[in-house]
Amino acid sequence: MANIHTPIPNLKLNDGNSIPMLGYGTGTAWYKTGDESQLDQACVDATKTAIGLGYYHLDGAEVYKTEPELGKAIKESGVERSKLFVTTKVLPNIADIPAALNTSLKKLQLEYVDLYLIHAPFFGSPEESPEALQKAWKAMEEVKEAGLTRSIGVSNFLPQHLDAIIKTARIPPAINQIEFHAYLQHRELLQYHKEKGIATEAYGPLTPATKASPGPLDNVLAGLSKKYAVSPGEICLRYCIDQDIVPITTSSKEQRLSDYLRAMTFKLTPREVNDLNEAGSQKHFRGFWNHKFADNDRR
Ligand SMILES: NC(=O)C1=CN([C@@H]2O[C@H](COP(=O)(O)OP(=O)(O)OC[C@H]3O[C@@H](n4cnc5c(N)ncnc54)[C@H](O)[C@@H]3O)[C@@H](O)[C@H]2O)C=CC1
Ligand SMILES: O=CCc1c[nH]c2ccccc12
Q: What is the pTM of this model?
């Protein structure tokens, strides 16, 4: 298998911690719809394979019900805890964040996570109220101060949600994890992140080469794939990294996980990133949370 242990660079966060610039997700492809206590050995094995290939940044969430699998994979990988970067997220149990994180830690068999995220701003009563967001963020600050997580952040937040928490925050969010690819460029949100020193993580980074194909990016992706001798998906991963955005991908296939690491072996020119931006802006595609974001909403 090619690319074993291809080094993945780090991005420095606003709290001084560092995050590896490619993550392996245990959500899509793996989340359970049934009983969480029924261990999915295929998920454990794929996660161990990913760790073995050098994916030390691992993304989970309470809602995926795969924290037990992630924990088992970490334990059995034999990789030192300090070398791994483990994320989990809260949403169903957001009313009691310390209890939710302690439950996640038990399932993960860990004493701390590296990053704890509010999975989405859609909770509270009324949903997305500034007061509900501020109250949840205060609890996030407390679990960081208690040492249960090294960094805290959010996911699927828009500028108005970030504004609400920043207004009363003692600790600013380190990261916002959003759906990001050339068909969902979030230019205003990215500018906001830059101004506030918030790092961006991209889920769904392969979307232009998978779910949203065919489309206006196909020819540009094909040309760049030929030039760099990689797949269109690897161009999509590099498109994120070259904008300092941390992609989180996944696969159950070892070969694909290995191939994705080729994204560490080349760099797109600013002009090529611009070509992808231009072609991508001719189509809008959102693969997740469509029921919460307006249909034609490019935020
Ligand atoms: N915070 C949030 O709300 C969300 C977070 N996530 C996180 O991000 C992770 C990755 O999300 P994805 O959307 O899965 O990322 P992705 O865009 O990288 O897609 C990965 C999927 O594409 C498939 N794939 C790869 N190459 C392919 C090809 N050539 N043809 C067809 N399919 C191909 C893989 O098998 C895998 O199922 C999740 O596991 C989860 O951890 C995902 C969605 C929402
Ligand atoms: O994080 C990805 C999107 C998502 C939100 N809720 C669930 C539940 C199960 C799998 C994925 C997700």
A: 0.98
**Which residues pair with residue 117 across a beta bridge?**
89, 153
| Per-residue model confidence (pLDDT) at position 69 | 98
CB contact at 8 A, 77 and 108 = no
Angle between helix axes 130-145 and 159-168 (nearest 10 degrees) is 60
Indicate the annotated binding residues for substrate. 119
Interface pTM (ipTM) of the complex?
0.98
Ligand 1 binding pocket, CB closer than 6 Å: 25-29, 59, 119, 155-156, 177, 203-207, 210, 233, 248-251, 256, 288
Whole-number CA gyration radius for the chain: 18
Ranges of H-type helices in 26-170:
41-53, 67-77, 97-108, 130-145, 159-168
Query: How many residues does this entry show for the chain?
Result: 299
Q: Any catalytic annotation for residue 64?
A: yes
Whether the Cβ atoms of residue 82 and residue 53 lie closer than 8 Å to each other? no
pLDDT number for residue 2: 45
CA atoms within 13 A on the CB side of 150: 19
Residue 29, SS3? coil
Q: Whose CA is nearest to atom 9 of ligand 2?
A: 64
pLDDT tens for 167-219 read: 999 999 999 999 999 999 999 999 999 999 999 999 999 999 999 999 999 99
Burial class (CB in 10 A: 0-12, 13-18, 19+), 291: exposed
Query: Which pLDDT belongs to residue 294?
Result: 76
- Which residue bears the tokens 């704890």? 116
**pLDDT tens digit string along 230-278?**
999 999 999 999 999 999 999 999 999 999 999 999 999 999 999 999 9
Query: Is 63 near ligand 2, meaning CB less than 6 Å away?
Result: yes
Element (H or E) spanning 110, and its range? none
Identify the active-site residue in 24, 55, 56, 64.
Answer: 64
**Which residues, listed in sequence order, are joined to residue 181 by a DSSP beta bridge?**
184
